[in-house]
Write a structure and sequence with these properties.
The chain is α+β, with helices and mostly antiparallel strands and 210 residues long. The protein is built from 10 helices and 4 strands; from the N terminus they run H-H-H-H-H-E-E-H-E-H-E-H-H-H. Bound molecules: 2-acetamido-2-deoxy-beta-D-glucopyranose (3 copies). One 2-acetamido-2-deoxy-beta-D-glucopyranose binds next to loops. One of its GO terms (biological process) is carbohydrate biosynthetic process.
């Protein structure tokens, strides 16, 4: 009998607990949806949101709490932007990650066979990096891959940061890469798994498949 009684009390308590959890979860979900939607659309979706933002209790909230909230919003705001995983992956790619010059708030998208040696040396020079290495991780340059995803997203969408790219006339760039790479057997093997030097037309066929 005692056992039964205990069981009933327990299950009552359990039911209450479940009800409470569900209510809290629903409230939380509702609030979250509201906040996210408002942030995304930058509009007040509910008639009482206008009210709630001017209600006296917000005035009572201390300055410190407000600052904390703002800080938290700032930390979270990279989630507002949509940027594909693939794009992030490419920005962080080991060999091609764009150069970051924090002092000038610059993100520079360099390209191979488009004066990249020149640009890398220039960025070393203006930052006082005295380094003979240019094309590897010992070149002393900061790249996007050393930032975490949220930081990258925020920098990419922040208008105070200049995003720049240097391009070259494509046919000239193609010829330049042919002269630079296709005449070296070991490079052709390394890059294209073709263990010989190739003619220009072969080169065109090969790069089509890359
Ligand atoms: C750069 O470093 C080399 C040695 O690594 C040194 O001989 C040279 O004077 C340095 N140049 C500058 C401008 O500091
Ligand atoms: C944008 O960058 C500037 C300079 O780094 C910084 O002061 C500002 O807070 C950033 N803005 C956002 C929305 O992150
Ligand atoms: C590439 O060819 C050279 C001869 O031209 C040969 O010595 C070398 O082993 C070859 N490398 C591969 C990976 O097949």
């Amino acid at each position: 009998m005692m056992g039964n009684c205990d069981l009933t009390t327990d299950s009552n308590r359990f039911a209450k607990l479940v009800l409470m959890s569900v209510t809290i979860a629903m409230c939380f979900f509702f609030l979250l949806t509201k906040v996210v939607l408002q942030k995304q659309n930058n509009v007040k979706l509910f008639p009482w949101s206008q009210l709630s933002s001017t209600q006296p209790d917000t005035k009572i909230r201390s300055k410190k709490q407000n600052e904390e909230m703002l800080l938290k919003q700032r930390e979270d705001n990279c989630r507002d932007y949509r940027i594909s995983k693939q794009a992030i992956y490419r920005l962080k790619e080991y060999w091609s990650s764009p150069i970051v010059v924090p002092k000038y708030k610059l993100i520079f998208f360099w390209n191979e066979k488009s004066a990249c040696t020149y640009w890398k040396k220039l960025f070393q020079f203006i930052q006082g990096i005295n380094n003979t290495e240019v094309h590897n991780h010992r070149n002393g340059l900061t790249t996007l891959k050393s930032f975490d995803t949220c930081e990258i997203i925020k920098m990419m969408y922040n208008e105070s940061w200049v995003k720049a790219v240097f391009v070259r006339e494509p046919r000239e760039r193609l010829l330049s890469s042919y002269l630079d790479k296709a005449h070296h057997q070991h490079i052709m093997y390394q890059l294209c798994r073709v263990n010989r030097t190739v003619t220009f037309y072969e080169f065109l066929e090969i790069i089509k498949t890359l």
